[in-house]
Amino acid sequence: MFERFTKEARQVVTGAVGQAEGMGARRVDPEHLLLGLLEQEGSRASFALAALGLGERKESVRRAVREAHRRAGLSRAETDALAGLGIDVTDIVARVEAAHGVGAMAAGRAGAEPKSGHRPFGKGAKDILVCALRTAVTHRDRRIGDEHLLLALTLRPGIAAEILADHGVTYEALTRVLYGTGEAAAG
User: Fold this and answer.
1) Whole-prediction pTM
2) H or E stretch including 21?
3) Ramachandran angles phi, psi of 81, nearest 5°
4) What is the pLDDT of residues 145-160, one digit of tens each?
5) How would you classify residue 170: left for phi > 0, otherwise alpha for psi between -120 and 50, otherwise beta?
């Protein structure tokens, strides 16, 4: 499938591996693909993100990813569901970090560290890659670009989609910017 990826899409995937490594994660997750996308410049995805106002708010996205990883990779929806059962995830994180240090619950940190640059792709990241292929086919694009990775991130439930939506980046808004008139309002 990677032979169908544009140079920009390959850079996102390579960047995602680097992001996972930098965060000490054992595998590449969708959030790492999102962080890899934020590093892109001059690509279709970067222009779409800028058009939706995310260009100047990249640090806010990075903070949201770090916070989600501190919560052991739980999305806000999952945290809210647990709260409905009387489980305060924020309190649990605080207690674990008090006993074991900041970041002790960070998603993907358990076990031995993989070799540098040899992070496997987790199920969620693999699903994003497959969804990007389907998205490219749906839009009749011959190659899979970074814009298809971005669109796929908005379609698959999870932390990355939640963070993007919180920043006004949805599938509908991206589709308007990428394939429509180019006049999309955030959200």
Assistant:
1) 0.83
2) helix 7-22
3) -65, -40
4) 999 999 999 999 999 9
5) beta
Per the structure block, which two tokens stand in for 124? 């969620």
Beta bridge partners, 28, equal 121
Domain ranges of the chain: 2-179
The amino acid sitting at 11 is: Q
CATH of domain 2-179: 1.10.1780.10
Pair 40, 148: CB distance under 8 Å: no
CA 139, CA 122: separation in Å to the nearest integer?
26
Dist CA 185 CA 59 (whole Å):
21
CA angle 163, 164, 170 (to 5 degrees): 140
Cβ pair 124, 30 in contact under 8 A:
yes
- Tokens 């959030």 belong to 31
Tell me how crowded residue 27 is: count the other CB atoms within 10 A of its CB: 17
What are the pLDDT digits (tens) for 35-47?
999 999 999 999 9
Closest CA to 169 of 183, 157, 185, 158: 185
Query: Distance between CA 24 and CA 89 in Å, rounded?
Result: 22
Rg over alpha carbons for the chain, rounded to the nearest Å, is 17
Q: Are 52 and 173 in contact (CB under 8 A)?
A: yes
Query: 3-state DSSP call for residue 178?
Result: helix
Alpha helix locations (H) across 40-122?
A: 44-51, 58-70, 76-84, 89-100
